[in-house]
Amino acid sequence: MSHAVLGGSTSAPFNAWRATLCAACASLIGIGFARFAYTALLPAIIGNHWFAPATAAYLGAANLGGYLAGALGARVLARHVPNVTTLRTMMLLAVVAFFACALPVSFLWFFLWRFASGFSGGVLMVTAAPSVLAHITPSRRGIVSGAIFAGLGLGIAATGTLVPLLLRQGLAQAWIGLGVVSLVLTAVAWRGWPDGTPAAAASTTVQARRRPASPLALRSLYIEYALNAVALVPHMIFLVDYVARGLGKGLDAGANYWVLYGLGAIAGPIFVGHLADRIGFARALRTAYVVQFCAVLLPVLGLGMPALIVSSMVMGAFTAGIVPLVLGRVNELLAHHPASQKAAWSTATTSFATLQAGAAYGLSFLFAATSGNYSLLFIVGGVAMVIGLGVNLVAARRERA
């Protein structure tokens, strides 16, 4: 697709698809690898006696804490550091963190580098996609944002394929391998970031020209996105364990379902982005809430393995796919105020990260307190999604009134 279709003229030559590739590389490194690879590496970290199980769990949480700090700190960096410099620096920070984690010097060393990788991911999530989408005409932002966040899904899928291959060479070598791959991706993205003031940022949709967004619409979107994070946690954390131990299928079967989850995460952003371009981000979001409600409850209904396959792929699709939908909705609501879009996206990302971390700890506690009741975890996810849909519908009705 040509540059003329995707964006207008800018202050410097702009290649839309090269910029999209750059942002996809950023989401692959900062979120796909930096967060989800640890899940696949965790058994080896414990098995090789790098850290005790409880300590290793805290190290996993360090990435989530860093991600939240990065989402909050992105706004501060934007005021003091050029955008392209921030993007390049954060990708390099993630690369260095992979190499540093190959050396289990101490708990503090490992914690700081896991935190740093999470921080880079939070900054990249807030900064990378908006930097590209500001140069894209509104009618194509759905499919472009979907392509960007397909990188996140690719990282999830790689945790079930690439990481086991790297672990055959050893645990330290697996960390180094992730660092090498991330360094190559950083080099690919180094010179492709857009710079200057985008002409597309000034364009607005017809609906946005009629009426600017109200604070109610934005606040409800933040709440919906945070509740969606809760709905994603049961599959994100417990899917493999549910298949392996809850259903008694074993670790190999659990890994296979994680690969299905990752395949859904690759295809999901592109599919929902295309849907949003056709029906609008508001309607696409509402559709996403309904579909996720059904998918998160499928394991509870006892419909067998085919239903679990569907559930795994759909929830994987929205683990990555909900991100471009919410980002696109933020841009729609603030079409008259492009300068406010990045701040609003930072707030949305922060709300998502906060409830995701809280839900991860809360559901882990609930799981232990109920002696391993998997069904209750999926029910909590379904309830969160119903509440999110309710918030959406109530806010829409008040807007119309």
From TrEMBL:
Which residue range or ranges hold the Major facilitator superfamily (MFS) profile domain? 20-400
Among its keywords, does the record have Cell membrane? no
Give the domain of life. Answer: Bacteria
Any one GO CC term of the record:
plasma membrane
- What is an example of a GO molecular function annotated in this UniProt entry? transmembrane transporter activity
What are the alphabetically sorted keywords of the record? Membrane, Transmembrane, Transmembrane helix
Residue intervals passing through the bilayer = 21-46, 58-78, 90-112, 118-136, 143-166, 172-190, 216-238, 258-276, 288-307, 374-395
Query: What is the name of the protein in this document?
Result: Major facilitator superfamily protein
Species assigned in the record: Pandoraea horticolens
> In the record, what lineage is assigned to the organism producing the protein?
Bacteria, Pseudomonadati, Pseudomonadota, Betaproteobacteria, Burkholderiales
